[in-house]
Automatic annotation (TrEMBL):
<feature type="domain" description="ABC transporter">
    <location>
        <begin position="2"/>
        <end position="228"/>
    </location>
</feature>
<dbReference type="InterPro" id="IPR003439">
    <property type="entry name" value="ABC_transporter-like_ATP-bd"/>
</dbReference>
<dbReference type="Pfam" id="PF00005">
    <property type="entry name" value="ABC_tran"/>
</dbReference>
<dbReference type="GO" id="GO:0005524">
    <property type="term" value="F:ATP binding"/>
</dbReference>
<keyword id="KW-0547">Nucleotide-binding</keyword>
<dbReference type="InterPro" id="IPR027417">
    <property type="entry name" value="P-loop_NTPase"/>
</dbReference>
<keyword id="KW-0067">ATP-binding</keyword>
<keyword id="KW-0813">Transport</keyword>
<dbReference type="InterPro" id="IPR003593">
    <property type="entry name" value="AAA+_ATPase"/>
</dbReference>
<dbReference type="InterPro" id="IPR051782">
    <property type="entry name" value="ABC_Transporter_VariousFunc"/>
</dbReference>
<protein>
    <submittedName>
        <fullName>ATP-binding cassette domain-containing protein</fullName>
    </submittedName>
</protein>
Length: 289
């Protein structure tokens, strides 16, 4: 359990302020979403103890940084965005090095990490010789060293290819049950099947924290899919149109509306991204029509 209480954090070099009155993050995968500059990376850096609040308290299973910083850090895995790794080290040496910082590797742990993150063929290669996506896999692998209770991932899918994204999201899902995993992302679709909670940040403030069911419920409009003749999408306002899939002589539409927009349309399941779109428009007072 991760608790924040009256936390305020100000960026020295900008006027940005993060403010969280009270927030308790539960185990499982929390998707941290919000626009550019909302404060997602800042929040993850705070949670990972890479920086500290100006005021307020963060508790990790009851532990606080003022007395238990080393013990807390030993229980955290963190992958910042744009992480830079030691270029001259080999993959194996780098993972061993990170493990040393956390008290050493358990039996079989190195092999498990190398296998889980598909790093076998790169184990003896220096970081500087690796493709971006492979470097990212090394960065992600180190976050699981010592089986941390808290894992913070800042846009972890960056640079991963399509198959590795699928593999990684499944891996996180399989290894998040007893952990608190917070994932900052702009790619909600790829986490759709695996997310447990959503945390929506705007202007340094949490606007929503709840289960994915709560995130997609109680919204002012519904999602509909239907097929229209070519050009038929023009009767919808731009704010209503979520997706146009061109077919031979018709278009398949995905639209927002309070009621069924016409014959040929049927209700569609609301995705996390649909709900994000609706909530952002509602917050800023933008109409759908
Ligand atoms: N190192 C820094 N020094 C000063 N200000 C910073 C620094 N990093 C970020 N900021 C500012 O803090 C605010 C929040 O940035 P942050 O990177 O946390 O947002 P974000 O939600 O992660 O954005 P994005 O989706 O673009 O990654 C922004 O106004 C940004 O300009």
């Amino acid at each position: 359990m991760l608790e924040m209480h009256q936390v305020v954090y100000r960026r020295q070099a900008s006027s940005f302020e993060l403010s969280v009155q009270r927030l308790t993050l539960k185990p499982g995968i929390t998707l941290l979403v919000g626009p550019n500059g909302a404060g997602k990376s800042s929040l993850l850096q705070l949670l990972a103890t890479a920086c500290f609040p100006d005021s307020g308290i963060i508790r990790y299973d009851g532990l606080g940084v003022e007395r238990d910083l080393a013990a807390i850090r030993a229980r955290i895995g963190f992958v910042p965005s744009g992480v830079e790794l030691y270029e001259q080290m080999t993959v194996t040496k780098l993972l061993r090095y990170f493990a040393e910082l956390k008290g050493g590797l358990a039996a079989g742990e190195l092999e498990w990490l190398i296998e889980s993150f598909h790093l076998g063929e790169y184990r003896s290669r220096k970081i500087k010789t690796l493709a971006q996506g492979v470097r990212q896999r090394v960065a992600l692998a180190q976050a699981w060293i010592a089986s941390p209770s808290f894992i913070f991932l800042d846009e972890p899918l960056n640079a991963l290819d399509t198959l590795e994204r699928l593999h990684f999201t499944r891996f996180v899902a399989a290894h998040s049950r007893s952990r608190t995993v917070v994932v900052s992302t702009h790619e909600m679709n790829e986490w759709e099947a695996w997310a447990d909670h959503v945390l929506w940040f705007e202007d340094g403030i949490p606007y929503f924290y709840g289960t994915v069911e709560e995130w997609t419920a109680g919204l002012p409009v519904s999602v509909w899919t239907g097929s229209v003749v070519k050009g038929g999408h023009r009767r919808f306002a731009p704010g209503q149109l979520l997706h146009i899939l061109p077919e031979d002589d018709r278009d398949e539409l995905r639209v927002l509306d309070e009621q069924c927009p016409g014959s040929g349309f049927e209700p569609a399941l609301m995705t996390l991204e649909d709900a994000y779109f609706i909530r952002c428009r509602s917050r800023t007072g933008l109409a759908y029509r």
